[in-house]
Amino acid sequence: MCGIVGYIGNGETQQILLEGLKKLEYRGYDSAGIAVFTEQGLEVTKSKGRIANLEEKLEGTPLLGSVGIGHTRWATHGKPSDVNSHPHTDNSHQFSVVHNGIIENYLDLKEELIAKGHVFVSETDTEVVSHLIAEEYDGNLVEAVQRAVKHMRGAYALGVLTSHEPDKLVAVRYASPLVIGIGEGENFIGSDIPAILEYTRNVYILDDGDMAVLTHDGVELFNLEGKSIAKDIVHIDWDLVTAEKAGFDHFMLKEIYEQPKAYRETMLGRVSEDGKSVDLSKELEMNDEYIRSISKVHIVACGTAYHAGLVGKSVIESLARIPVETDVASEYRYRSPIITPDTLVIVVSQSGETADTLAAMREAQRNGARVLAITNVVGSSVAREANDVIATWAGPEIAVASTKAYSSQLIAFYLLGLHLARVLGTKEEAELTHIIEGLTALPEQVESILEQASVLKQVAESMSHHTSLFFIGRGVDYAVAQEGSLKLKEISYIHSEAYAAGELKHGTLALIEDDIPVIALVTQEGLFEKTLSNITEVKARGAHVFAVTNQGFEAEVAKSVDEVFAIPKTLPVLTPALAVVPLQLISYYASLALGHDVDKPRNLAKSVTVE
Ligand code: G6P
Is-above-0.85 flag for pTM? Predict the structure, then answer.
């Protein structure tokens, strides 16, 4: 997704912008550019592709100045190209803009501007913004931006420069995140904190409709009516080192190995010290009376977070006995869901900025539902707008393919399920304690799986030359199969499908042919025999079956499959938090064997802030 960085001060502007953009690479992008006010005026250099391409362009002709803006673009309006990259300028080259989000009425605005004589060179909505600001300018940039945004509909985080007022950098936010970094004699803007963390830990987090005017010496904050506003400075105490690879070849591998730690952190302070109870009442605003009034739960999320929601459904239904529906966020709003005041809507989002998830959440709130967010980014839009938040505390996740964020979302669902079950009295105390014991054993059990990574590497390598494969499972195994399949597709580009094991024979069995790999999840004790007979069906058609099962059952399962991998024994409801780990490793090693860019798969973005 797009990234913004901006700088004003006496430091090395170009370098600061480029370094900031590199810190945002993890968001996914297809082009990059910077604009700096130099002795020649406002100069822009941009390039399709990686930041390295931009650096190459700048090598002979650096942009020297003390104010600049930079951008990594992930194409929405118009293909990835030099000309569609940001920053965009107006016809006079006096105004330059970087933008995250989408201006929904840009075509109407463009038409009006063309009628006034503006000439456009790109296909983007952002170029319209630079022209609009130029059109509104009559000697005061701040007022011009205020007037311009009044014409705009949609989502925007903007960084704006003009050569008329080169001592100023203007930033404004509406429905797309933006932070202001406060330095000494220098100030910064960033769409994400990592972009500026190397230079300052003191930030303002802008809210919708906030505007910041940065000079060398200070930052002034306004609303869109031009009224001065006050905000607390937030001190960021997390470290950039945690966002670096720490000796692993890829962020994804590092993040897979961080899962035991992430599980512990997610449970920290939520499971009592004696390990016997779970209590979220300190952090949840919802009280017991509200919990008793919940008639149904909707879980809404995108991508991997949606897959965590599928497990969450089964956790809440089995522990708290509340009916749960699970939806992908991009569908939820448009199916007229029946949302009543006693519907608890749970949104799940690693980044807390996914546009579809945010929109679904707002729709739910408009309909009177209470929204609980499970997110990894405290301070994100989702976290700030939800009525209740369970932070997953997994730490920054950089690889586009989500691993520790997903699995810590599972832990959050277990904690929530246990909390609801206690309040509602749907499970005996002893049974809850038994589940909590299982939960607290998970981190060590994941460690034992990670120790067997080399076995999974071999499995992955042998599968990597296939063009298609299947994942099958029943119950929560099917939910995990879907996540395993998505992970493989995302980073190895091998086509795969996840199927409910019993559904295979209703059509897709036709695709099972000699030697096709099938990854079967067989961890649900009550469903063993059923799943094994489905495995027999694919074996009979020549499939090569790799099964993930529980320790103690390897010998039994081995009779029906070609290879078995055993995860440590746990309660059926908890197996997803273990079973997903071998699947993550298989995806990682398959991608590696095929020589792909593991952390930045093609066409995908870490955080998708457009609908
Ligand atoms: C993108 C990412 C996925 C992620 C999804 C939801 O599509 O590529 O990995 O699962 O967004 O993101 P969120 O931040 O809301 O969990």
Answer: no
